[in-house]
């Protein structure tokens, strides 16, 4: 039997040492992270509902914590995560109809998803702070 060539030593599957991170790759990872963040953010939402349904002092405690700088920062991040995850879902919905798979279309959808989530978050918070007074 003929001698077979020696095996080339390479990883069994691609990983970050092989691929350089692309913008669409990073946004896919961010989409997953925002999904996890939304899971934990629901705890804040349930806490708000329970505080509103129970005593006025419980609601006052929640309001004081949510109204603090750190609380507002967390709520701002939760708002962005919700919108970013929703825009990412729309992007995946478009892909379900076999559209937007070209390199330019993929990049455009990803950029619109990021820019739209940031812009809409800022607009919503400006409106909310203006209404609050």
Give the termini distance in whole angstroms. 85 Å
- H/E topology pattern: HHHH
Which architecture does the CATH hierarchy give at level 2? Up-down Bundle
Q: How many strand segments? A: 0
Identify the CATH class.
Mainly Alpha
Rg of Cα set: 22 Å
Tell me the name of the CATH homologous superfamily: Fumarate reductase/succinate dehydrogenase, transmembrane subunit
Unreliable stretches covering 5 or more consecutive residues: none
Q: What fraction strand?
A: under 5%
CATH topology: 3 helical TM bundles of succinate and fumarate reductases
Tally of individual domains: 1
The description of the largest β-sheet is: none
Please supply descriptive tags for the structure shown above.
mainly alpha, 75% helix, membrane, SQR/QFR_C/D, transmembrane, heme, transmembrane helix
């Amino acid at each position: 039997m003929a001698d077979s060539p020696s095996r080339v030593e390479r990883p069994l599957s691609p990983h970050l040492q092989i691929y350089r991170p692309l913008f669409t790759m990073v946004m896919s990872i961010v989409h997953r992270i925002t999904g996890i963040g939304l899971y934990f953010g629901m705890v804040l939402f349930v806490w708000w509902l329970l505080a509103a349904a129970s005593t006025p002092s419980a609601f006052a405690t929640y309001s004081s914590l949510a109204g603090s700088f750190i609380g507002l920062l967390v709520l701002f991040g939760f708002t962005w995560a919700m919108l970013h995850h929703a825009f990412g879902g729309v992007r995946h919905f478009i892909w379900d109809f076999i559209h937007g798979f070209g390199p330019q279309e993929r990049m455009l959808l990803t950029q619109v998803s990021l820019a739209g989530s940031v812009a809409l978050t800022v607009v919503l918070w400006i409106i909310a702070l203006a209404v609050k007074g």
